[in-house]
Design brief:
4 helices, globular, alpha+beta, 160 residues, Glutaredoxin
Length: 160
């Protein structure tokens, strides 16, 4: 049985990260973008990270430029923007595709585990979110319009 721990992704600095490093943690995996109407959600995501990291939550941000070219920058530009504008210090990864033939294997798996509204698997926009339990299985999928603050009860449940 596949879990999130079976995947690997490059971090924002291009270094490989084996997601098994997060074994036993609850994960909030989000496709992010710097020039999106939902970009201010970085504030809420960072707050979730600060509030719950000591309890076992890790927020993982995956920049994606597939929606309205709203993540046009390089990894270095993305990292600087997130740090300087939103003081993000949760883990960020290299820019990826979440849809299509070139979609990152992690995101193919996430969509397969929890399809969206009406059973549609495709990611519809930036700031789609997946909550993964401590066992590495997807618990819930959230729409871009679901604010980080609205996820607190689900996160607390996932943390036990």
């Amino acid at each position: 049985m596949t879990t999130v721990y079976d995947f690997q992704a490059a971090d924002i600095d291009g270094e490989p990260v084996d997601l098994s490093e997060y074994r036993g943690k609850a994960l909030l995996i989000v496709n992010v973008a710097s020039k999106c109407g939902f970009t201010p959600q970085y504030t809420g995501l960072e707050q979730l990270w600060k509030d719950y990291r000591d309890k076992g939550l890790v927020v993982l941000g995956f920049p994606c430029d597939q929606f309205g070219s709203q993540e046009p920058g390089s990894e270095e530009e993305i990292k600087n923007f997130c740090s300087l504008t939103y003081e993000v210090d949760f883990p960020l990864f290299a820019k990826i595709d979440v849809n299509g033939d070139q979609a990152h294997p992690l995101w193919k798996w996430l969509k397969q585990e929890k399809s969206g509204l009406l059973g549609i698997g495709a990611i519809k926009w930036n700031f789609s979110k997946f909550l993964v339990g401590r066992d590495g299985k997807v618990l819930k999928r959230f729409a871009p319009t679901d604010t980080p603050e609205s996820l607190v009860a689900d996160i607390e449940s996932a943390l036990g």
